[in-house]
């Protein structure tokens, strides 16, 4: 197992730690959970950078990395919704998008010759937007700003979804002449 894949596994391990801290009774629990979230984000950037720079991209990493991203996204969205920090429609909108992405990714990988839909700039922008929106909650920025960032995140995720959907259709055509 290479360094990028180890960093991805660490990110997966950070998810239950984030949840345990977020739902604990400790003082400043949201801030401490936010620090775990930031560490997960840093490990995400590092694993991608190291994998590309040193040509350590693997099929395992191509599957585990988006899985880790989606699970952390769900953890944050569910915890924020349960704590009433964001409205439930945001969880529903992003949750439906992520569930469809997981299903599409599974179909490509399992039934279309281990194909993996590569990440792209639209997905990265949507992810960066999600991090900005989540951090605005964690660091108690003005509510209007957080609300605007989450609206922007939903819009960017919908745009990224359509871009990924077009890529998915292109990959499916290549496997079905």
Q: What's the structural blueprint in terms of helices and strands?
A:
Layout: H1 3-22, H2 29-53, H3 59-82, H4 88-111, H5 121-138, H6 143-175
Helix pairs in contact: 1-2, 1-3, 2-5, 3-4, 4-6, 5-6
Summed up, the helix count is 6
Into which percentage range does the β-strand content fall?
Answer: under 5%
In CATH, the topology is named Four Helix Bundle (Hemerythrin (Met), subunit A)
Please state the average pLDDT score. 90
Q: Under the CATH scheme, which architecture would be assigned?
A: Up-down Bundle
Please bin the fraction of helical residues.
Answer: over 70%
String of helices and strands: HHHHHH
How many β-strand runs?
0
CATH superfamily: CDP-alcohol phosphotransferase transmembrane (TM) domain
Q: Find the structural class using helix and strand composition.
A: mainly alpha
Q: How would you sum up the major sheet?
A: none
CATH class term: Mainly Alpha
């Amino acid at each position: 197992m290479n360094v990028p894949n180890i960093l991805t596994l660490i990110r997966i391990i950070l998810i239950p730690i984030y949840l345990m801290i977020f739902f604990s009774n400790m003082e400043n629990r949201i801030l401490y959970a936010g620090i775990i979230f930031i560490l997960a984000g840093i490990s995400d950037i590092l694993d991608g950078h190291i994998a590309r720079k040193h040509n350590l991209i693997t099929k395992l990493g191509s599957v585990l990395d988006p899985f880790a991203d989606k699970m952390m996204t769900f953890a944050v969205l569910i915890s924020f919704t349960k704590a009433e920090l964001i409205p439930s429609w945001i969880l529903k909108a992003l949750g439906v998008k992520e569930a469809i992405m997981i299903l599409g990714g599974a179909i490509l990988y399992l039934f279309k010759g281990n194909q993996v839909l590569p990440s792209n700039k639209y997905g990265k922008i949507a992810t960066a937007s999600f991090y900005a929106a989540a951090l605005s909650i964690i660091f108690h920025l003005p509510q209007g700003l957080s609300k605007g960032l989450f609206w922007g995140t939903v819009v960017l995720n919908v745009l990224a979804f359509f871009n990924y959907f077009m890529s998915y259709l292109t990959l499916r055509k290549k496997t079905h002449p």
